[in-house]
Amino acid sequence: MASRRNIPYNRLPADEDDDYDGNGGRRYDPRFDYTPRSLNKVPWKSIALAIFLLFLGCFLLLLSIFIFTGHMTGDRSQAYGLLGLGFLTFLPGFYETRIAYYSWRGAAGYSFASIPDY
């Protein structure tokens, strides 16, 4: 294995008090910056994916119901397959769309930051 000589190494602090500055507070750490604008960024791709999954799930569930009731031709096994796929696409689409709707309405405890950005 080749050695990595271009990596700058820093010594670890010998004492835990080295993490503090001289005034009794912690040193500035940019990882924990609070920027309200970045938390209110709307993840449009994720919302579009959630709406697509919601409608696809509704469509697949509707097709399975039509096969079960006999309004469409098909085997029962096809209806069970469509029912399973319908649930698998409907549930995440409904969940993410619900979070996006409550975030848009400004409900307490919901924000666009809780939706993963793809």
Describe the model:
The protein is an all-alpha fold and 118 residues long. It has a domain at 42-114. 51% of the residues lie in helices and 0% in strands. It is elongated and about 75 Å long.
Key attributes of the depicted protein:
single chain, 118 residues, mainly alpha, 3 helices, 51% helix, 0% strand, elongated
Quick summary of this structure?
It is found in: Membrane. The protein has 3 helices and no strands.
Helical content class: 40-55%
Distance between the termini: 36 Å
**Overall pLDDT level:** 82
- Determine Rg (CA atoms, Å): 26 Å
Order of helices and strands: HHH
Number of helices: 3
Q: Main beta sheet: strand number and arrangement?
A: none
> Helix- and strand-based class?
mainly alpha
Number of strands: 0
C-alpha geometry: elongated
Uncertain runs are: none
Q: In terms of topology, how is this protein built?
A:
Blueprint (H helix, E strand, L loop, with lengths): L35 H4 L4 H26 L6 H30 L13
Helix pairs in contact: 2-3
